[in-house]
Each structure stands twice: as structure tokens, then as C-alpha cells.
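Figure 6 in text form: structure in, sequence out.
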């Protein structure tokens, strides 16, 4: 996704995976999201369909 940070891209992927209940997508991207800078708590929160605390502005917009 050109123009988005690696962190924001992972937020989009996890939100989409949660929306569609895509277990493999969530599993596969958990490690990538960690490397992009998301904490385990943020990943779990996004994977459950909720908005985690302490995302940067770009990632918060990507989540919506």
C-alpha cells in the first residue's frame, strides 16, 4: 500500500482479518505486525475487532 507506513499497513490487514474472521491472515500477520512496531496487546486488540490504545495518528486513521 503505497504511502502508508509499515505499521499502518499491518493495522489495515489486522482490522480486515478481524472483520472477515480470517484466522490464517491474523495468525500470519501477527509476527509481521510485531516487526512493524505493534505490541502483542495491540495485535490482540486489533485481531478481536477493537481499537487499541496508543496508535500513532496514521495508524488510527487506517484502523477506521
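Output sequence:
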Amino acid at each position: 500500500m503505497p504511502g502508508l507506513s509499515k505499521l499502518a499497513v499491518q493495522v489495515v490487514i489486522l482490522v480486515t482479518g478481524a472483520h472477515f474472521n480470517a484466522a490464517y491472515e491474523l495468525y500470519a500477520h501477527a509476527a509481521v505486525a510485531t516487526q512493524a512496531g505493534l505490541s502483542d496487546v495491540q495485535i490482540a486488540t486489533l485481531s478481536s475487532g477493537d481499537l487499541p490504545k496508543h496508535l500513532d495518528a496514521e495508524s488510527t486513521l487506517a484502523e477506521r
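Caption detail: The mean pLDDT is 89.
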